[in-house]
Amino acid sequence: MSYASRRRSAWKRQTFLTHPRCEYCKRDIGLGREFGLRQATVDHIVARRDGGADNPSNWALVCLECNQVKADRPFDPGVLTGVVSYRRVAA
User: Fold this and answer.
1) Average per-residue pLDDT in the chain?
2) CATH: 1.10.30, 2.30.29, 1.10.1200, 1.10.150. Which one for 3-90?
3) The HNH nuclease domain covers which part of the protein (predicted)?
4) pLDDT over 80 (residue 30)
5) By C-alpha distance, which of 52, 72, 64 is closest to 24?
6) Is the distance from CB of 38 to CB of 64 less than 8 angstroms?
């Protein structure tokens, strides 16, 4: 594991302790693969390929599903509307 990966992992664990919800859809998330699409991941708010920094000022703790839907695009609540609406109905 690279230094950057270890740093993101440590930040994810620390942030999860104080805020265990997805920054985008606001649902509860968990640490570990057993949480499936609700697994906590670190998203680069501005994609690294677009010049976004690889540090906490550009990171968001989000669920795997929101991270996959957003992909390398800038954060746009409209893109995640389907995910959030579906989750509200399913919950």
Assistant:
1) 83
2) 1.10.30
3) 10-68
4) yes
5) 64
6) yes
Read off the pLDDT band of 22 (50, 70, 90): very high
Convert the chain into a string of H (helix), E (strand) and C (coil): CCHHHHHHHHHHHHHHHHCCECCCCCCECECCHHHHHHEEEEEECCCHHHCCCCCHHHEEEEEHHHHHHHCCCCCCCCCCHHHHHHHHHHC
Residue 28 pLDDT > 80: yes
Rg (CA), the chain: 13
Inter-residue contact 46 to 58 (CB < 8 Å): yes
- pLDDT tens for 65-74 read 999 988 887 7
Report how far apart, in Å, the C-alpha atoms of 44 and of each of 1, 48, 61, 63, 86 are.
Answer: 18, 7, 9, 13, 24
